[in-house]
Each structure stands twice: as C-alpha cells, then as structure tokens.
Design a protein that fits this description.
This protein is of the alpha+beta class. The chain is built from 2 helices and 3 strands, in the order H-E-E-E-H. Helix 1 packs parallel to helix 2.
C-alpha cells in the first residue's frame, strides 16, 4: 500500500530565524545586494535562512546561470 505524505502548512511549523550577519558578512551582502530583515536574508524577493544560500543564488544570477523558466 502506498504511503501518503501530508505537508504541514507554514502556520504549523516553527519560524526559522537566521543567524544575524557579522561585519564581514555585511561587506559580502553589500556587494551582492542581500539584505537582512526580520530574521531572514533577502535576495530577489526570496527569503533565505542562511547567508550561504542567499549568496550562492546571488552569484548564480550575477553570472547569468539562473534560468527563470525553471
């Protein structure tokens, strides 16, 4: 018998609060256009719970490797 997976709504899951940026992080963020607001990193209308993911995506977009059709 196949198992059914039920996704929990965002309302039932605890909010993830990102670690605030360090002084060094702030320099990287300024270079890539990343903001830290309300406990999350923001780039291109997307929220990230860590700077590493936000920076990687910002670099891909800057290098032209991101295809918005995906």
């Amino acid at each position: 018998m196949a198992r059914k997976h039920h996704l929990k709504s965002a309302e039932t899951q605890p909010a993830v609060i990102a670690v605030p940026p360090t002084e060094t992080d702030l320099q990287l963020m300024a270079t890539l256009g990343i903001r830290f607001e309300a406990g999350a990193y923001h780039f291109s209308c997307i929220l990230y719970d860590n700077l590493h993911d936000a920076a990687n995506f910002a670099r891909m977009v800057g290098a032209g490797r991101y295809d918005e059709r995906l």
